[in-house]
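quick one, 105 residues, struct below
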Amino acid sequence: MANLTNVHCVLTIPERVTRRFCEFVKIDYQDSMVNWPPMSDIQKENYKEFGDTFKLAAESKSFLPSTPKTALKDENFASLVQDTIDKAMPIYKMLKEEMADECFC
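---
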């Protein structure tokens, strides 16, 4: 049985969606799943190379409501996205390798 969730639902009713997911996978719901402390200065230091890309996430304490996106007019946007992917890829590969023994797929 597949269980699909719309990202809009996660952002608008995160506690309800998370509780239902926890029931589905048979784990206990914890408030910290939808409310968390902002990153510490030490954690932020690890992400500083990404500039403002992670600033909103680093300062968040819960899921934020979705806001309509406007078209970006910055001609450098594609290269910014590629630069971010290039910087994140080594971290992704390291995490993927470390998690290989724990993967459930």
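The longest helix spans residues 77-99.
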